[in-house]
Amino acid sequence: MSNSERVPVELCKGVNGLDKVVLREVRGSSAEKSRCNVFIGDILTTLPCFLEQILSMVYLYGGHVTSWKNDHGEELLFVSSKAIFKPPKAIRGGIPICFPQFSNHGSLEQHGFARNRFWSIDTDPPPFPTNSSSKAFVDLILKPSEEDLKIWPHSFEFRLRVTLGPGGDLMLTSRIRNTNVEGKPFTFTFAYHTYFSVSDIRKGCCFGLAYLLLFSEVRVEGLETLDYLDNLKNKERFTEQGDAITFESEASPGNHLLVPDSCYVDKIYLSTPTKIAILDHEKKRTFVIRKDGLPDAVVWNPWDKKAKAMADFGDDEYKHMLCMETAAVEKAITLKPGEEWRGRQELSAVPSSYCSGQLDPQRVLQSS
Ligand SMILES: O=P(O)(O)OC[C@H]1O[C@H](O)[C@H](O)[C@@H](O)[C@@H]1O
What we know:
By secondary structure, the chain is mainly beta. Helices cover 7% and strands 39% of the residues. This is glucose-6-phosphate 1-epimerase.
């Protein structure tokens, strides 16, 4: 798509005056229903509003998607009410980019530095082969500063395209290029650390195994029987048992609340399929996550004790979020000078009627 066909990028001020880009798409007919006020640059202006408008927001700070709304205006991503929109803290929620290091798997700061650097809008990106007809996208770029080169001495260009599809899908494509001139390769790990908004993750946990398998409110399909590294057990390797991942644990004697004591989970699933689903019974919604170039998938929920220890996370917010992070962690990526790596994640939210086993999760996963 040539630049002249693109919808102009809507740049406005977000929390604490940080720059953010708003992407809008209109689902179905473009019937104009009303008008709304939006900032374009610093100017407040009135634009047509569409009832069936799909929206996403991307902060230049971190190249960070903080919002993804469906055509009913429902927010699909979780952002903490205590998120600190201020450097050097990364924004808690949305989709932080972990690069050039995932978690503490190396000597850099946790999750690397891309999530707390200021990215720029890439006005003239190299050609981008795509089969999407969407005009709602933004290209961002991150290059290392002098300070970055002191802690990670590698020249790179990190291009991120965020696209909102006409059907409401949210696509993130990363292109990372080694621009070292002295012939040095570099190695990195990576993740899209997506925080999904879910209904109460604790529900349906403590009624015994049969209840769990059939009625857990939130469950993950696609990772069963896979090997994982457990971050809570010194990255020891285990094999996932059972039909699906639910968030249960043994209730201790005296726990009459019918909620589990703790389902603190922090696991890196290895060699995962290209499609993973999060089924949310209560919201009757299934998130389908498709990925390319990202073999691993991290599942994280801090549960109550860890939540309380985090300054930028509400004590009870763990109940309504689940991180499903598409990643390249176990086998780090190495790029020689001039080489480029691509990693793509595509998110869809589809209505589901997961009730009394009506929904066959395999069908969700197998459909294209
Ligand atoms: O608190 P953060 O640095 O954002 O990290 C939040 C979490 O991210 C990932 O899921 C890691 O696997 C966890 O070990 C970590 O606790």
